[in-house]
Specification:
The complex is a heterodimer.
Chain A lengths: L2 H29 L11 E5 L9 E6 L9 E8 L11 E5 L10 E3 L4 E3 L6 E2 L5 E3 L8 E7 L2 E10 L5 E2 L12 H4 L11
Antiparallel strand pairs in A: 1-10, 2-3, 3-4, 4-9, 5-6, 6-7, 7-8, 9-10, 10-11
Chain B lengths: L33 H5 L7 H24 L1 H9 L13 H20 L9 H10 L4 H28 L8 H23 L4 H15 L5 H9 L6 H33 L17 H12 L10
The chains are: A alpha+beta, B mainly alpha.
Chain lengths: ~190, ~300
């Protein structure tokens, strides 16, 4: 090790540290939202008497705060159905976000199906995919009853058997090996 | 290609004049002008002297800069570089793309003077630009339609490069830089689409981000990075704005610099239908061989003897 070489290494090392001191905080600042989970949010959408077993009622509530109307989302809410052998006394809230690429689906009363206007995705009464390009059933929202009001909470996704998993973005498969290929994001809430 | 009119040397500053071809040097064979022999030089009046100084001033300024930067050699080399035979209008697509980028940059700077990257005010500020600001609709329209023009020109330029085989040795690196520029331009188009924050841009961005998210393993994190959270929100808009007007333009400008440096450094290719001319001088190796033959093996160092 010559004196010249020692100084070269020291100068390059100091330059590297100085560079990292600028770049690392900046990059960390930009990627931090990936690891940040917001506050859990519940919103009352109506008294329990508003919701029945055999059809949905459309409700609009705020999913993201601070951006006005753009932060609102639509859910279709009903009472759990005895006929479909669901857990009694619960409320089902199906998100209108298509599991294909996130367009808003609409519940068509006459057909008893959810239909997406963008690319023709079709879901049955429970939100299971029965046609078109979607890769999984429609997302749902956690529900609870407080003081006679039905409240909607964080979003979660479901597998093709309607088992709850952590929320995935549209276009991502759920269940089986897909749970590893599309890992759950730290910014989402644990499934109920 | 039609012949362009030649610019008289008298109006081109001396350092930027096209260098004379060999054997055509100005001023003849070093003979003094005839009038110098017959009549003595005139005495200059003050007015004439000042006039001459004024005439020389631009050239003097250029010379001052040139002496300190050495720009002349670079500029003459760049502006008067040789282009191959058969160069045609297709070769202007790269410059056209650059021009489209400059239009985007200039109109973008002026749009930023009126635009507010806030979810509650973005749409209103765009309406204000379109309806109230003088020529606002024109500048916004140039930026909006110009983005499509730039993307189309890039693909035409890329097609020209591909079909003329201009990506081959030694220009592979320039192709790679060009592809990075293409990706950056697509990033510009994607991030710019959200900024008006109307229904179309909102849902197009939702779909675009979700397409990004379908990439296995990294996809979900990429979506969260783009949205700055699990849902498209206020931070998404400011994030897209920052990427659109600060991050990517900086990268594009520096890469365009590298792209053009390589174009000047390596020169352009002839179109594939132009055949290479037979060289006037024979291959030097053949010449050497021929020389060895004619020397008749008198050289003892020859390995054949």
């Amino acid at each position: 090790m010559t004196r010249r070489r020692a100084f070269t290494i020291a100068a390059q090392g100091l330059g590297g540290i100085a560079g990292a001191a600028i770049v690392l905080p900046a990059v960390g600042f930009a990627v931090a939202p990936i690891f940040h989970r917001g506050k859990e949010r519940w919103e009352a959408v109506g008294p329990v008497s508003d919701f029945v077993e055999d059809t949905y009622r459309q409700v609009v509530f705020t999913e993201t705060e601070g951006i006005g109307d753009a932060g609102k989302t639509t859910a279709y809410v009903r009472k759990s159905s005895k006929q479909l052998e669901e857990e009694p006394g619960k409320y089902v809230a199906v998100s209108n976000r298509c599991a294909h690429l996130g367009c808003p689906v609409r519940f068509v009363e006459a057909a008893g199906n959810f239909i997406c206007p963008c690319h023709g995705g079709v879901y049955d009464f429970q939100g299971k995919r029965i046609g078109g390009p979607p890769v999984r059933p429609l997302d749902q929202f956690q529900t609870r009853v407080r003081e006679g009001q039905v409240e909607l909470g964080p979003r979660y996704s479901v597998t093709s058997q309607l088992e709850p998993v952590r929320a995935r973005d549209p276009g991502e498969f759920t269940g089986g090996i897909w749970e590893y290929l599309y890992p759950p994001r730290p910014s989402t809430f644990p499934a109920p | 290609m039609p012949k362009l009119p030649t610019i008289p040397d008298s109006i081109v500053p001396a350092p930027l004049r096209k260098p004379a071809k060999p054997g055509e040097g100005r001023g003849g064979n070093g003979q003094a002008p005839a009038d110098l022999k017959t009549s003595p030089p005139e005495r200059q009046t003050d007015v004439k002297r000042l006039g001459d100084q004024a005439k020389d001033a631009p050239a003097d300024v250029l010379a001052w800069v040139d002496q300190r930067t050495g720009a002349t050699g670079f500029l003459t080399g760049m502006l008067f570089r040789k282009v191959p035979k058969g160069t045609n209008w297709f070769y202007t697509l790269g410059s056209a793309t650059l021009f489209a980028f400059i239009v985007q940059a200039v109109t973008g700077v002026f749009l930023a003077m009126f635009y507010t990257p806030s979810t509650t005010q973005a749409y209103a500020s765009i309406s204000h630009i379109n309806n109230d600001v003088p020529l606002g609709q024109l500048v916004h329209g140039m930026h909006k339609w110009g983005s499509s023009v730039m993307v189309i020109l890039i693909f035409l330029h890329m097609g020209r490069t591909f079909f003329f085989g201009a990506y081959k040795y030694p220009r592979e690196l320039n192709w790679v830089i060009g592809v990075i520029l293409l990706i950056l331009t697509m990033t510009m188009a994607f991030t710019g689409y959200l900024l008006p924050f109307d229904q179309r841009s909102f849902w197009a961005s939702v779909v675009g981000i979700n397409i990004n998210g379908t990439g296995p393993i990294v996809g979900p994190y990429l979506s969260d990075f783009l949205r700055a959270g699990p849902e498209l929100g206020a931070t998404t808009l400011s994030r897209f704005y920052s990427i659109h007007m600060l991050l990517v333009p900086g990268a594009i400008i520096s890469l365009i610099g590298a792209h053009m440096y390589l174009v000047v450094k390596l020169g352009t290719t002839a179109p594939p239908w132009v055949k290479a001319e037979r060289p006037k001088i024979a291959d030097p190796v053949q010449q050497l061989d021929a020389g060895a033959e004619s020397n008749g093996g008198g050289n003892g160092a020859s390995p054949t003897s």
